Amino acid sequence: AVADGGDAAADVSSWLIRTYGSSDDTPKSSHSHPAPSSRKNSRQASFGLSVATSSQSFSDDSTIPRWHHTMTVDNQVEVDAFMDANFSAWGLDVFHLSDLTAGRSLQFVGWEALRQGGFLSEFDIDVDKAHCFLRRVESCYASSESVPYHNSLHAADVTHSVHALLGTLGFGQYFGPLSRFALLLGAMVHDMGHDGRNNAFHTNVQDHFALTYNDRSVLENYHVSQAFRLLKESPEANLLDALDKEEIVLVRKDMVDSILATDMAHHFRGVETIKSYIEKLDLDPADWEAEPAALSALQAMLLHAADIGNPGKPAALSDRWTDLLRQEFYSQGDLEKSLGLTVSPLCDRDVKKFASSQVGFIQFIVRPTWNALESLSPAVAVVSREICLNLALWEGHKAAEEVEGAEGL
User: Fold this and answer.
1) CB 226 within 8 A of CB 220
2) Confidence (pTM)
3) Hey, which of 63, 187, 247, 254 would disulfide with 159, CB 3.0 to 4.6 Å?
4) 154 part of the active site
């Protein structure tokens, strides 16, 4: 359990290292995107968002079909109404969207994010290749039956969260179109091929993941490798082929850096880094643009925040995500027991301390991350409010858990 008092943060840090990785080998990037080419200059201003504006500032490109012609569903009117009413807001119910689209939530979220962002026309992307990419990426995620949490539903949720961060929550103003495009693509593929086990498990058993990636962010390396393997080996799914060579290099760099930074072992250093940049640069996007390393850190933090953002969703959604994650943890714990391994933290279904760990996770991991982002964009307050509400609910669960534990003595 996460301890109370002054050592709580250290306890959570220790738990994270034990659970998610062996060390903090945070990827470092100092790359600098060159000034946009003339092709993009005409669109640069239209993509700028003031903190006060919403995602409606994104271009809703009428030259791109609302949906790819293969994305037809019998209840198309209902799907369109749901997306029109909810897509621009934080906290999209991707479970309901999955029900509406026969399990194709990532395809529909990914397509709408690309369309609303104007990326398909901005970069002359072939719509057939874009849809093929989305379909193939979705198929590379495991089913929800075998991997309850890290599946295409989670990818759709994170992709929408990134879309909201760039739009409604005000961070689009800090990046040019190419960086925003790369961040959305990174969200789509950030857990591609996840097997429902964490880095510590793969390192402990020294399987092909650990041996291939030398115990360093093994899953994150695998996910991004799978994504670029798909692009290279499947021309029909290579939505980047209309970009020039320099743009492709930059998109790859951004995606690799941001996906590797989702390894929880990098969390504390990442938060401290972004806080130091916020203190140094304040809110002016022009100041951030002059610090390429700061923009890289912010880009990585946005994907990481989206990845751990479930406690910032409405309680009904947050609780559902937490239950799925618990199922996945317990499945790993069962496997560890069968292999004679020490059961990883939170993975033993016979140890009733999940609420305690969830309180610690929200207090010392989730809330500081989003507080830092809120200091950069006040629109993030909508997420912070949900975090506070969910923390209060989990504190109640923790109290009940402790009473149950005491009665069981």
Assistant:
1) no
2) 0.89
3) 187
4) no
